[in-house]
Design a protein that fits this description.
This protein is α/β, with parallel strands linked by helices and 465 residues long. It contains twelve helices and 18 strands.
Length: 465
Amino acid sequence: MKNLNAILMGGREVIPLVEGGKGISISNGKSSGAWAACGGVGTFSGVNADIRDPDGRILPQIYHGRTRRDRHEELIDFSIAGGVDQAQIAHEFAAGKGRVHINVLWEMGACERVLQGILEGAKGLIHGITCGAGMPYRLGEIAAKFGIHYYPIISSARAFRALWKRAYHKFGDMLGAVVYEDPWLAGGHNGISNSENPEKPEPPYSRVAALRQQMNEFGLRQTPIIMAGGVWYLRDWEDWIDNKELGPVAFQFGTRALLTQESPISDGWKRWLLELKKGDVLLNRFSPTGFWSSAVRNGFINELKDRNDRQIPFTEEAVGEHTAEFEYGPRKRSVCVTPGDAVRGQAWCKQGFTVAMKTPDSTMIFVSPEKADQIRTDQIECMGCLSQCRFSNWAQSESGSTGHKADPRSYCIQKTLQDISHEGDLDSNLMFAGNGAYRFSSDPFYGNGFVPTVKQLFARILTGD
């Protein structure tokens, strides 16, 4: 195994191992500070982070606003206060070592306001901004304003080219690294484009080599690339280290960093990870963002899959093959479907899925009355956690709406991620994970249910294992 030499990132030499930022309260100040203390780059999530009371207890985030707009403003206040709090925790645990980054999603609600509010309140505590989930054109400008480095997350050379040409070339000196997040292997939301096949993964080497070639053309030969998604054993990536074609490279660990003593996820979640098998993680498109995402197959994902499978197209009047009249709802309203779909719809109703809910795509899904009530309640209680949401039809525009019907095939991502990260039921909530999460069960390091400290995991990774 080659030695992994320190590289310059964010104005300091660090060991090129990066903790991936994960969701709502899943990578926090404690986990990221511990990672930085090892000499690497720790990353806490700035997405609606936890806030502590004076005694160190997590404060529940309860919304009182009567309108979505009011709740959206409450969410912004919660997010800024939580981000500042977690930055302070990370700073304390890092003890002046490594680097501490904040991770935000460009498509989260009021991202720019939240990010700038956190950076204002945590001056000197955060060394870099990692940002993906969209095209964060203003990321470089915001980073430069606060004198810190920025780390855009992209999934192709083409995406980076667009960002550089439009905005980043003006702030090239503050570009700390480019994060290549593999769209087939990474956990959480993935950057699979419409031109790429979700069922046909492409090798990351050729895609990263293309990214490096693009960066070289822009004079960024010494700017590191952070490989994210599918990284487990460093020995699997040994030919990437000191590779002249790829240039300086760092490696990001998201899923593997879930299983540490400092990780804030519940003990039950940690035990679940230890028992995963190959195929237990599903690449899906149920997210209200519209992006592909990677999550553990559990009751939550299975219900969404079944809900989407119980779906038929309809027309308001008889057109083409849509000749069968189908009545639905207590008022016995009717639409036209194909004869075969009429039979399927009636069969689902007999199974208890008696409520037909229309989607924006002129289809309808069949759910139980209890599930229909839950979907409607979650849509009504939306607090605008995304810049636009297909589930609730919220948008942070002046109108407050996407202009489309709310889509019952999706879910409230804020609700489920808050629930699972705060001791909620594991089977009925969204559990993001990378493609390689099944490796916990076969990796001898985790034998007999061993859960390492961040320091122990960091040292293990450096051995190649």
